[in-house]
Amino acid sequence: MATTDIHSFPADSQRGSLSRMIERFKLARSRRAEYFRLVRELESFSDRDLADIGFHRANIRDIAWQAAYGR
Questions:
Q1: C-alpha span between 71 and 67 (Å, rounded)
Q2: What are the pLDDT digits (tens) for 33-60?
Q3: Which of 22, 23, 55, 59 has the greatest number of CB atoms lying within 10 Å of its CB?
C-alpha cells in the first residue's frame, strides 16, 4: 500500500507572512521618503541658517539619516 504525504501550510500563516512583509515595505518606503524630505529641506537653508541651528552643510545627510532611521 502506498502513502502520500501532503504538506500544506495554513493559509493564515501565509497571509500573516505576506502582511508583515508588506508592512516592512511600507515602513521602509516611509522612512526613505522622510529622509529625502529632510535632506531637501535642510539643503534649502542658507549656511547661516544652518549655523544658527548648529548644523553644518557637510552633515545634512547624516542628520537626515539619524532623524529618519534613528541610528
A1: 8
A2: 999 999 999 999 999 999 999 999 999 9
A3: 55
- How far apart CA 52 and CA 68 sit, in angstroms, is 22
Domain annotation covers residue 65: yes
C-alpha to C-alpha distance for 36 and 61, rounded to whole angstroms: 9
Type of residue found at 57: R
Residue 41 falls within a domain, yes or no? yes
Is residue 7, in this structure, part of any structural domain at all?
no
Q: How many domains does the chain have?
A: 1
Query: Which residue in this structure is represented by grid cell 526613505?
Result: 32
pTM of the model: 0.73
Can you tell me the distance from the alpha carbon of 71 to that of 66, in angstroms, rounded to the nearest whole number?
5
The torsion angles phi and psi of 24, rounded to 5 degrees, stand at -65, -40
Structural domain boundaries enclosing 44: 35-71
